[in-house]
Specification:
With about 375 residues, the chain is α/β, with parallel strands linked by helices. Helices cover about 40% and strands about 15% of the residues. The mean pLDDT is about 95. One of its GO terms (molecular function) is glycosyltransferase activity.
Length: about 375
């Protein structure tokens, strides 16, 4: 069966690219279609001979400037001729789901999220943009929204990466979506035989919406040790915050190897997760190490963390709310509420193997649905 996998862009390796990697395990001979491709960064994972890029690849520095091409993306994806394929699968958080397929070709789209900057987060992006970006956003976004809705209607089956995203799909596209959780590499993680250490962990990119500042301030207030793993645009700001906090015992590791991250996760008291995410892979990875989560109680965390079994939630993105959650966690932890082996068992529900199995089932159902129309 000749299969095409369509992905927004291949310029960095992250959670969405893990999904494409797993799709290729299901269909090793599939061709990949994408907006732009950075061979230096992605060539080992996605070989050049498998990748077909859009006309925008010809623009100098395209792999760095691609986010500026939003108004050109719909046309770029619609230019791909997929008429020779027996199955088309899209992996999309932007415009990849907008390719045009034959009525007789099953077309399934795995949606990481509808375009955040076009819909519910439009005003946040607008507020934080410069004058020129604001001008073009106001001018282009109404047409982008129209195209985004219209293109969503020509997909046979929509699959969301969480119930949270399924709700956003229903809100903005008025389509129902099946839920298949994204793949987490639980096999490379394990529960340590050693007792937990005396520290909490944050593991994240240093960007504003991750709200790492809450974890730093709350741990400083409670005089708790915090290990902060990662890097990003907020690094200087977060280090200044930590330095200004009295009683702060905050260690920044920078970017470290997977094995070092694993060691920190295995022995932490808990992972602190302050973001509102569509899904959130890192909390699942910590649970795969048998460690509980202290999470903001919105978004994907509500689907990956079980309250008072694999972690606890805080209700507001505020220092006060997080402080209360840490205190509640410590109370439950003293009562031996959190069983590492059971936490690990819960995390295994989100394994890559389960992702492939569940996605395969949605593909089979889509093929049956299309076949019944022919």
């Amino acid at each position: 069966m000749k299969t095409a996998i369509v992905h927004d862009w291949l310029v960095n390796y992250g959670g969405a690219e893990r999904v494409v990697e797993q799709m290729l395990l299901l269909y090793p001979d599939a061709d990949i279609y994408t907006l732009v491709y950075d061979e230096k960064k992605m060539g080992k994972i996605f070989p050049k001979e498998k990748v077909h890029t859009s006309s925008l690849q010809k623009i100098p520095m395209a792999e760095k400037l691609y986010t500026k091409f939003l108004s050109l993306m719909p046309k770029a994806f619609e230019e791909f001729d997929l008429t020779g394929y027996d199955l088309v699968i899209a992996s999309s958080s932007c415009c990849a789901k907008g390719v045009i397929t034959s009525p007789t070709t099953p077309f399934i789209a795995y949606i990481h999220s509808p375009m955040r900057y076009a819909w519910d987060l439009y005003y946040d992006y607008l507020k934080n943009s410069g004058r020129l970006t604001k001008f073009f956003m106001k001018r282009w976004m109404p047409d982008i929204r129209k195209w985004d809705y219209i293109s969503s209607q020509r997909i046979d089956t929509l699959v969301a990466n969480s119930s949270y995203i399924a709700r956003r799909i229903k809100k903005f596209w008025n389509r129902d979506a099946a839920v298949v959780y994204p793949p987490v590499d639980t096999d490379r993680l394990s529960v340590s035989d050693e007792a937990a250490g005396d520290y909490f962990v944050v593991f994240s990119r240093f960007v504003p919406y991750k709200r790492i500042d809450l974890a730093i301030s709350a741990c400083a207030r409670l005089n708790k040790k915090l290990i902060v793993i990662g890097s990003g645009s907020q690094e200087k700001e977060l280090k200044l915050l930590a330095a200004s906090c009295k009683n702060a015992d905050i260690k920044f590791t920078g970017r470290i190897s997977d094995s070092e991250v694993k060691a920190y996760l295995q022995k932490c008291r808990a992972l602190i997760f302050c973001a509102e995410e569509d899904f959130g892979i890192i909390p699942v990875e910590a649970q795969a190490c048998g460690r509980p989560i202290i999470a903001f109680g919105k978004g994907g965390a509500l689907e990956t963390v079980v309250n008072e079994k694999t972690g606890v939630f805080f209700e507001e993105q505020s220092v006060e709310s997080l402080v209360k959650a840490i205190e509640e966690f410590e109370k439950l932890d003293k009562e031996n509420t959190f069983n590492p082996k059971k936490i690990r068992e819960h995390a295994e529900k989100f394994s890559a193997e389960n992702f492939r199995k569940n996605l395969s089932e949605q593909i089979r159902l889509t093929e049956d649905k299309v076949r019944n129309y022919i």
